[in-house]
Amino acid sequence: MELTFVKLCEVTFSHNYYKDEEIKDVVVQPTSECSRVLYNQNIFFRKTKKGFILLCRADAAAATEPFIPLDKKIKLTFHIYFGNPHFLNFTDLPVDLQSDEIFYLSNLNNNVNGTELLLSSDTSSGYVSSNDKISLRPQKFTYSGSSSNSSVDVVIKNVDDNIIHSESADVLNGKYQTWIDLTSYPPSRYKLNIDGTEALDFYADSLLAGKKVFGLMEIFINEGEANSYSLVDSNKNISAKKYLVKFNRRKTVWKYYVVTKNRTSITSADLEINHPDSTIVFSASAGQELSDGSTAIPFVSNKEIDLAEEAVTGIELKTINGSGSNSITIENLPNPSIKNSVPDTSANKVYSEIFVYI
């Protein structure tokens, strides 16, 4: 038999913050168990400019017939990292992400958008979102909660929705606590139900828990994935797929601080900021004293503005009143740095601050 390599699947990442929507600093790493499975199945992991591909050794004469049969349940797990420490600042994802929360992507999500096979779960936007957020836990941990009952039923289900553990926990003074031990099960996604209601959607992995990882991606074969996502056909021959992971840019309220360091007589009534989009209006408020004694005049946009790698040009600062040395025109104000995002969780807004000195 003459052998060749054929594409089993391709995963592409995109982000509309970037001019070409190409994420420049995504890092995808197979776990050690995934690397073992890939090796045993004669599947090769290759990084690409936009993500990665999996190549499967197959019969050259019948290019879709894998050399090692893909006729059993297979799970391939990958860790996802981003080299840019400010990734969340310019990406439309929750700003209140907890230290034990990650994003989980999978081909078990039946999320077809036109011709796109998305690995995220949000069917309305198609982007990775808070819907993909889960908790990352070690395989042993304590879970506690409150209840008005005398006891609660604790049930844990695996990714197949099968019950793998159930028990009853006593409630004392309105509180209960239960010890979760999944060390006899592989690292995976699980769901913990209390009295029939989902209380925790989590990924149990003692080696990964506590580490800084953006998320996990799991690609399943013969695990009940939808036909449109399946990497094998009914005859267990290769049915190559292209999966997509899409990120949306963050919108923020832009806040310019015009620091009148050398023109102390200028007030908010003397200045205006104009955006090339006439629907975006900046309103000034009274000057604020900074720590160095200078005065900063805040100008705040009336609505959220897309953050983008390519700067918006034509944002203009100018004097309304004044002439000679008091006349000011700056035709292209700087766009906000992705480092300077200030979340206001109470107002559910994120502000981008820009300082301009005159």
Explain what this protein looks like in three dimensions:
The protein is an all-beta fold and 358 residues long. The chain has 3 domains: 3-136 and 209-247, no CATH class; 140-204, Immunoglobulin-like, CATH 2.60.40; 251-357. The chain has 1 helix and 27 strands. The chain has one helix spanning 32-40, and strands spanning 3-15, 26-30, 43-47, 51-59, 74-82, 101-106, 111-113, 116-118, 133-137, 140-146, 151-157, 163-172, 175-181, 188-194, 197-204, 215-221, 241-247, 251-259, 271-274, 282-284, 288-289, 295-301, 305-306, 316-319, 329-330, 341-344, 349-357. A hairpin with a 5-residue loop joins strand 21 (288-289) and strand 22. It is flat, with a radius of gyration of 26 Å. It starts with a strand and ends with a strand.
Biggest sheet statistics: 11 strands, mixed
Parts with pLDDT < 50 across at least 5 consecutive residues = none
Task: Tell me roughly what share of residues is in helical segments.
Answer: under 10%
- The class by helix and strand makeup works out as mainly beta
Count of the separate structural domains:
3
Query: How large a portion of the residues is in β-strands, by DSSP E?
Result: over 45%
Q: What's the order of the H and E elements?
A: EEHEEEEEEEEEEEEEEEEEEEEEEEEE
Total helical segments: 1
Number of strands: 27
Q: Order of strands across the widest beta sheet?
A: 2-5-16-6-9-15-14-11-12-13-10
Task: Specify the overall morphology.
Answer: flat
Radius of gyration: 26 Å
Question: What is the averaged pLDDT score?
Answer: 93
The end-to-end span amounts to 75 Å
